[in-house]
């Protein structure tokens, strides 16, 4: 077997294995990426790369290493899920950085976080004055959560004693010219109703629709693949 053929087979095999393992770990890695999860992801990727291009190595031990790293990661996730003390050891705890508008320099030093880094993350949350912050914490994934002081929070309808209507998630009925029949059935609708709604908005064919969403108010939003409208001048000119 030539080197190119072997690389092709190894790459295909490692891709399938990596896809399977990452499907098992993906929700954990993406939704709450801690530093240790990051290391696990890099290690698994490195092992998969070695399985592909290291033609002199036996693929068996590398496959075993991939399997063991996946099992270890799942085991730690199980411990974190079931045992609070274990979760504290594995994932750590949030660290208080600002309390009542005062920066806790000692905690900044423990995290090796500079004032510039802190201010940058505050600005990303549209906070430019430390005195406007009631609490700020560094989460276990490295992100900062901020609670502004009550007088600096945006006004909500509840603050004004205003009643609001329920707003649920819209339902996609057409995506890229294809009807999502399952969503139609879940809303007790049929294809004929959908076509009638399209004709009411002067749309002759489902294939013309890029996206159609049904709001909780019963209104159908339609975006066509070819929108005929006159472009406006660039507002930045």
Strand fraction band?
A: 15-25%
Total of helices: 8
Number of domains: 3
Largest sheet: 4 strands, antiparallel
Could you give the order of the helices and strands? HHHHEEHHEEEEHHEE
Low-confidence stretches: none
Total strands: the figure is 8
The Rg value, from CA coordinates, equals 27 Å
Helix/strand/pairing class, anyone?
alpha+beta
End-to-end C-alpha gap: 61 Å
Shape category? flat
What oligomeric state do these chains adopt?
single chain
Textual characterization of the structure:
This protein has 237 residues and is α+β, with helices and mostly antiparallel strands. It has three domains: 3-88; 95-152, bsu07140 like domains (CRO Repressor), CATH 3.30.240.20; 171-224, CRO Repressor (2-Layer Sandwich). Helices cover 48% and strands 15% of the residues. It contains eight helices and eight strands; from the N terminus they run H-H-H-H-E-E-H-H-E-E-E-E-H-H-E-E. The chain has helices at residues 3-31, 35-53, 59-82, 84-91, 105-111, 115-124, 181-186, 191-200, and strands at 95-99, 102-103, 133-138, 144-148, 171-175, 178-179, 209-214, 220-224. The strands form two sheets. Strands 2-1-3-4 form a four-stranded antiparallel beta sheet. Strands 6-5-7-8 form a four-stranded antiparallel beta sheet. Helix 1 (3-31) runs parallel beside helix 3. The longest helix has 29 residues, at 3-31. The chain starts with a helix and ends in a 13-residue tail after the last strand. The model has no long low-confidence stretch (mean pLDDT 84). Keywords: Cell membrane, Membrane, Transmembrane, Transmembrane helix.
């Amino acid at each position: 077997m030539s080197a190119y053929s072997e690389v092709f087979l190894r790459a295909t095999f490692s891709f399938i294995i990596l896809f399977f393992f990452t499907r098992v770990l993906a929700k954990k890695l993406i939704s709450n990426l801690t530093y240790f999860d990051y290391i696990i992801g890099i290690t698994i990727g490195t092992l998969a790369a070695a399985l592909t291009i290291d033609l002199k190595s036996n693929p068996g031990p590398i496959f075993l290493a991939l399997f063991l790293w996946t099992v270890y990661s799942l085991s730690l996730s199980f411990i974190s899920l079931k045992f609070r003390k274990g979760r504290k050891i594995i994932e750590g705890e949030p660290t208080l950085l600002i309390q009542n508008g005062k920066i806790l320099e000692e905690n900044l030093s423990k995290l090796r976080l500079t004032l510039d880094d802190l201010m940058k993350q505050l600005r990303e949350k549209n906070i430019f004055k430390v005195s406007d912050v009631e609490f700020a914490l560094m989460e276990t994934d490295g992100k900062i959560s901020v609670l502004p002081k009550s007088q600096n929070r945006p006004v909500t309808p509840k603050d004004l004693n205003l009643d609001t209507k329920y707003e649920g998630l819209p339902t996609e009925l057409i995506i890229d010219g294809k009807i999502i029949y399952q969503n139609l059935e879940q809303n007790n609708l049929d294809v004929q109703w959908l076509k009638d709604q399209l004709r009411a908005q002067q749309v002759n064919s489902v294939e013309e629709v890029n996206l159609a969403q049904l709001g909780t108010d019963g209104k159908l939003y339609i975006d066509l693949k070819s929108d005929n409208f006159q472009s406006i001048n660039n507002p930045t000119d």
